[in-house]
# Entry
Amino acid sequence: MNRIKAVLEEKGIKQVWLAEQLGKSFNTVNGYVQNRKQPSIETLFKIGQILHVDPKILLAT
# Structure
């Protein structure tokens, strides 16, 4: 499980924008956001950089 959806909502960022920044399809990012699939560690770090958050915050506790 991850907290990508919560961080996107907190920052007012749309999944479409994140998908564009990552160079991934909307469906892939939506899978991450809905916790149907989990991003690789590399992608998780890239999401953290894009959203300006520590990647650890993206992990559910």
About this structure: The CA atoms of residues 7 and 13 lie 8 Å apart.
